[in-house]
Amino acid sequence: MTPYVVLEDLDKHYAEGTTHRQVVLSGVSAQIDRGSLVAIRGRSGSGKSTLLNLIAGLDIPDRGSIRVGGENLHAMTDRARTLFRRRHCGFVFQFFNLIPVLTVRENVMIGLELNAFDDDTASRKTRELLATVHLADRADSFPDQLSGGEQQRVALIRALAHEPRLLLADEPTGNLDATTELEILDLIRRLPGERNTTVIIATHSELVAGHADRVLLLGSGKLTGS
Amino acid sequence: MSLFFRATRRHLSRQPLLTMLSVTGTALGVAVVLAVDLVNHSALRAFQLAERAVSGDATHTIVPASSNIPDTFYRDLRVEYGFQESAPRVTGTVRTPNGRTLQVLGIDPLAGLSNSPLGRRSPESRIDPGVLIATKNAVVLTIPTARNLGVSSGDNLAVTGGGRQHALKVIGLLGGGGAAVEGLRHVLVVDVSTAQVLLDKIGGLSRIDLRLDRRERRRLESLLPASLELRASGSRSHAMEQMTRAFRMNLSALSLLALLIGAFLIYNTQTLFVLNRRETLAVWRTLGITRPQIVAMVIAEAVWLALAGGLLGCLAGMGLSRVLLDLVTRTIDDLYFSLQVTNIALDPVSIAKAYGLGLAAAMSAAALPALEASRIQSRLALSRSHVESSARRIRRVGVAVAVPMWLLAATILSVSQRSVAAGFSALFFIVAGFAFLVPGGLRVITRCAIPVLERCFGWMGLWSARNILASMSRTQIAVTALTIALAATIGVSVMIQSFRLTVVHWLDNYLRADIYISRVEDNGASMPPGLLRRLRRQPGVDAMHTGRWRRLPTEGEPTRLFVLNVNARGFENFQLVNRTNRNAWRAFSTDDAVMVSESYAYHHRLEPGDPLGLPTAQGDHRFTVIDVFHDYRSDRGRVVMHRDIYARYWNDPVIESIAVYLAPGTDGERFLADIEGEMLRGSGLVARSNRKIKNASLEIFDRTFAVTEVLRLLTLIVACIGILSALVAIQLDRSKEFAVLRASGLTRGELARVMMIEGGVMGTASAILSIPLGIALAAVLVFVINKRSFGWSMQLSLPWEPIFTALILGLVAGAVAAIYPAWRMNRQLPIANLRHE
Amino acid sequence: MNRDYRVSRSCLLLLACTAGACSPAEDTAPLLSVDERLSGGTAGYPKVTEVRPLQYPDDHGPHQKYKHEWWYVTGQVKTRTQRRFGFQLTIFREAISNRPANSSSRWAANQLYLAHASVTDIETGQYLSGERFARGALGLAGASAQPFRVWLEDWRLEGRVDGDGSLEGHTVAATGRFGFELAIRNARPPVAHGDRGMSTKGPAGNASYYYSYTRLDARGTVRVDGEPFDVTGSAWFDHEWSSSTLTAGQSGWDWFSLQLSSGADLMVFRLRNESNPTRDFYSGTFVDAFGNTTNLASEQISMEPLDHWTSNRTGVRYPRRWRVSVPRLNLMLVTEPRLNDQEFVHSFRYWEGAVRVAGRHDGVRVGGQGYVELTGYSLNARR
Fold this sequence. Notes:
The complex is a heterotrimer of chains A (226), B (837) and C (383). With 837 residues, chain B is an alpha+beta fold. A 9-stranded mixed beta sheet of chain B has the order 6-7-5-8-4-3-10-1-11. The radius of gyration of chain B is 32 Å and the shape is elongated. Chain C is mainly beta. Chain C has one domain (5-45, 54-374): AttH-like domain (AttH-like fold). Helix content of chain C is 5%, strand content 51%.
């Protein structure tokens, strides 16, 4: 298997005020294989989210490099990084982060539209995906009319609709009850698996980690085990 | 992208109040700008139309150097010299019994220029020349004018002109639309013979319109006596434009201030929108929306709002212009020349200009929030603390930005000597620089207020102050907008009051005589012979001065020459600016010397000792300027010459006005009644006490600034909307926080009070901050803008009333603006805001 | 001929306009409004009802209590090289009020003056014309008998008139494009038309006072487009006043002033009935070579258009050549315009032009020249 994501010696810190400097990541290196499901475990504040942001090109490391699918994100312009993300990444968050003013259907269609799928394909795919997660009848609802589990299912298919190579999930089940958590985990494993999508999940949950092909442990900004 | 913009639109529609406030802000700004522009434009256009309606395509006009053209000259012009493309005009005003002023235009219906609407060949003309000439007091007017006056063909129309009553007979109406009829609104068209009687101008013409080619012009110039002057047509319109330019520019500048405050509002709203949506925007970024797209979205949003606001603003502006029209027209009528405008000309250029300005203001106001929004990388990067730190940044750079801006303003003022536009741009930089200091000022004031607030309101006061300090990013813009608006209020008020006090002081000094006698109609006719002698015999008369106005044809505008027969005591009435010449009185009464008013000196760049060339009856002659005197009579200024000097160069015995000094102990009212009953009855003369003239002058003064007051009020309304929208946004942004507090047991009343205290603190802070800025503005208005616009210098006085008013206004505006958000928040159940996330 | 109608003619023209009969191309704004003029019209002005002997020079002056009056000079003149011109100057007076102008203004007036002038340049085929208006006040326009002077601004007719009526004067008119300044002197005494100067103009009894100098020597300068020509020739002078308007049903007139090579002169006119030619009214005066005059009654005259000319400018069709006969005098004449387009188009529109004359008198061939005036023709005229 070829590594899809290669992290080399990443440092990241945030300035807080003028004097204090908070180190978030320090010397993180890792390789993640294409099609694998990797969990990054660590406590709150261990730098999981930051790592995901870096992999998605949302943030730039202070040192080190990130290669995704052979591309050096660090070397790209912001625009190129954004377009790369648009095409190749899908994002799932703890708080779902659906666009509140768009309906369920519209939320799912965002990725398709941004990647210039034609209208027919986009609505067909959206219909199919909504059916897969049993939400076909909620297509015209707004996110705040859905339960947490339902919202996360929408967020998941929104992240996967445009068939990204990389799915990034930040505590995707952190805000859900146990039953729903299992349901979502199942979907996360099942849906990308069919397309050889690489999945990286940041989590503190044992349960989630248990489903992963591989677990990276993050502690105080350092990779402490795998 | 379409979903992205759909989301934007839905976001706006889900924030109806905030959206509405932003739209209203733009709308008001655009409305004020448009209204002022339309009014300015309409006034100019009305004048041009009237010119055109009367003169048609006349190329030239013969005007008298003073008073009137002898009508025999007109006879010679046509019969002896053969200038057939010529038309006599006798103009003036009469009054209707209910006090309305109407213009009188005396024409020869047989002698119109070929293309004048009043010419006999024009399609609009339905005047029967024979009837107009032969019917006693026959008048023709336009259908709208007739409707306005409530008369129709065949009716009589009573007017007062030349001090006498006349019954005019309406013999016909000018119909049809078109510029011609439009230009003749409020005009009574009569035969020359009727006009001469109505206006007491027997034997005289006001002017002669002509159409000449170059050869004819040269021939005519060689034939023209020195007392007459040939001018190119349109020079009147041009002069009108010149005369009122400063006045109109001042109005425009004030209207732009409203737009500036409107732009602050848009800035405010957009920043709040961005803050409110920081999480959503972060999600969009993760989904692959680029930075430029975010910038475009925020700006597009502002443009949407501005498009809607601009549209509303244009509609409102058209309405508002009708309100302002009367005020502006009356001012021009009072100060410059007879002008009546009833119609707003909906000039598409003005509308496009105002709309464009609104859009441009919105786009530039949205630029900063848009950039801020595009910096959002992830949720982490846009935490509250991050935004607050950028707000802090503005506060820190405050002084660093303000000082250079003020230096720039000072440089502009010192480099540009006379430009009004430069004066206004300096004013702009002073305001803009100060705007950067407002956040810091707000912080300091709020901190200082904490003990007071705590004592007055307990923990709620404390908490309010902390809230303000913690959410500066949201509040500082609103406070800045309100500060500028209040400062404008103070500045303009202080300027007007200073001006008024200066004028009052001047009037007290200048109007020392007890009784002033003049013609009811300013028609250049002389006082009846023997009147002076009879007055002198009247018991109680101590001394008398006589006056005579002349219009001398000088380069550019004509010069107003006031010929005064005055003694040394009366000469003291002049408040001299320089007082360098100790022998001023002797020079004035014996040398070839004149005094010039401050405005005249300013416009003509004259100093004491300078020569001033004037066209006398014996050709051009140089006079020496003795000194400059304070004079607020007209912003065009005047030249004053002693009658004895005047008599050396003009053979003109005409006296137009008499000032009477009464002996001590004489009853002024009684004296007035006496001479009115005996001497002045039916003479077309009127006698007025100096108090009456003073009051009338101040009345005109107050009318002049009525429009300014209206604009000031509108500016303030815009700013209040700013405060309101800021508070609404705060409520939206903190709804969760408030919900928690409500859930923990805070009562509705307590929450509402917290919000009102916050509003009140913000308003009061604005007011306090606006005082120094307001005084600075007043100083610039008094010492720079007024001086440069009108040539007047005046004392800056600092009345407490406008400052006190601003304080109250600030406090009330802030508290009132908090009422709605407080009410709205209290309507919601706490749970509604707790459920999500 | 009663050219009293000439001013009244404006009313007709306006009536035609109101009825939609005017071609829109006509550049004739209403000078005198119809209703006012016809209703108020001539009420309050004396009618010509009785014969009174004409008195010279007094009757050369104005008769202001009558509504209408005019002085009229036409003629044909030639340069030494036989270049021929026609000229016309008519000054009208109209009383606009029968009350004296009572005002302190010198502009106050109860008299209104109009003037028409033209020059026909036959060689180049140009007809140039102009009009003027002014009130009879302030010296802008007026008339007086002693000295004889009728003027509207700088257009004028003035001279010395003796008790026997002999006239020596000059006539001046000029615009930017044309002008003339001609000395005139009567070659034969004035001729009183009708019954000692009272000229009847219809069965209804309308009449005017009317006399002419049928032959004047003219000498002076004609100017066309800035170029002056020294000319000599022959002119005709009319003066007429009254208060009456056209009789109902009359639509216009055809008027001839002809000077024959035999030394005789002929003035004839016809007032056309708008629908029925048999009700046309004719009148005229014949002056033989010795100065003897003969009044011609309606039934003694016949007039007949031989062909027509249509104006390019207005589209109006006018008779062009005429046959004029007076069987009683054994006189038959044919007139032909020197130039077809001599249509006067200003505030009023009519045809007035120089003509040549050919025909027979008492079996002898005669030639001659003259002026013809044709009014009341319009696009919709029935005849």
